[in-house]
Amino acid sequence: MTLVSKNIVVGVSGGIAAYKACHLVRLFTEQGHRVHVVPTPTALKFVGAATFEALSGNPVSTSVFDAVDEVRHVNLGQQADLVVIAPATADLLARLVIGRADDLLTATCLVATCPIVLAPAMHTEMWHHAATRANVETLRSRGIAVLEPAHGRLTGKDTGPGRLPEPEQIAAMAQVLLAGQKLSRTLEGLRVVISAGGTQEDLDPVRYLGNRSSGRQGFALAEVAVQRGAEVTIVAGATDNLPTPPGARIIRVGSAVQMQEAIEEASADADIVVMAAAVADMRPKNPASVKLKKGVDSDALSSLELVENPDILAGLVADRRPGQTIVGFAAETGDTERSALEHAKVKLQRKGCDVLMCNEVGNGKVFGQATNMGWILTRNGEVFEVGAGSKFEVAAQIWDAIEAVHG
Ligand code: CTP
Question: In this prediction, what percent of the chain has a pLDDT beyond 90?
C-alpha cells in the first residue's frame, strides 16, 4: 500500500474520551500524515495542549483570536485533506448543525470543503435524544460521516451505546475517506448479514480443527456497511482480538454447523448476505465428549475420521429470496493448471452467488494481514481488480460492487 502524506485536522471536543484522541494523533503521524490538533476550550480540561503539541509536532490553539496573523481559523480548514473530530460530543454536533464559528474547531469545520468524520461519544440517553438524532441526520445529509458510537461501559456505572469507537477504527474510516472512497448512506434501510472469522471443529472439549482467518475483512465489511446506513448482523466464528464493529449486532458461533444455523436464521429477512467467513470444509466425525488421552486414545488421536461440513453459501443460494443478493469469498492460490483468478471464475459459477471477492493467498498473503488484494467478480461477468489496500478500503470497493448488482 502506498501511503501519501495528507493534512489532517484532528478536532477534540470536551468529553472524557478526549484522552483517546492522543492515540489517534499518534496513529496518523505514524502513517506519515501532517496533523494539526484543534481542541475546543473544554477539551483542554481533559487533556492539556502540551500533550497534543508534542504528539502532533504542531502548535495547538482553541480560539479564533490565537495566531491571528496566520488567519488560522481559515487556513486550517482550507488546507485540510480531512477533518476528524474525536470525540464529538452532543454539544459539538449541535453547534455544527447550526453553523457556529465561535471557536477554532467550529470555524475550521465551516471553512473545510474536505471530508469530515465525526466520532461521537456521549451518554446513551444523549445519543438517543431526539435532538441528537435529528442533528446526526442533518449532518449526514450534508455528507458528513458520523460514525456509530461503540457499545460498552461509559464514564459512570452506565453501559450502552455512546463509547468512542477505538482509535484504530476511526483511523481506518479516515483512511477510506482519504483514499477518495465514499461513506455515504447508500445502504440505508437494508438488512445485511455478514459472516466473519474461522469456524472451529471440535475434536474433544480441549482441541479443535481451525484455520488462520482473523475476521478482519468481515469486520471491515460490517463497519463500512454500518457507516453506509445498513442494519448489520455479524455471525462470527473465531476472530483475532478485534473490537466489535460499533453499531452492528454480533452473534458468536463455534462450528460450521452452528454458523449455518445462525446465518440461516439471521438471513431469513436479509437483503444482502456476505459469506466472508473461512468455513472448515470438514469436521471430526466423532468428537469426543471428554478429553482424549495420549496413552489411552492413541487410535482416535492418530487416525482422524472426517465428514464434510454443509456448504453454507450453496445453501443460501439455493434458498435465496427474490431480490436477495448473496456474496461469496474465495481464497485461492492458483496452481499449474489455473491462476487464482481462473479458479475464482469457476467458483462464482459453481457457487451461483451474485458477487465473489477472490483473495490471492499463500506466501503470507492476506490471512491475518491488515491489507488485502485480489479481484471482485460479479454475476454479470465483470471483473474488478482490487489493488493492495487496507481491508477497509477493500471493503468499500466490495460494497460498491454489491450495490451496483443489488436490486
Ligand atoms: N463456504 C461455505 N461453506 C463451506 C465452505 C465455504 O459457505 N463449507 C463459503 C465461504 O464462506 C466462501 C466461499 O464458500 O464465501 C468459498 O470458500 P472456499 O473455502 O474458497 O471454497 P470451497 O467451497 O471450500 O472450495 P474449494 O475448497 O474447492 O476451494
Answer: 81
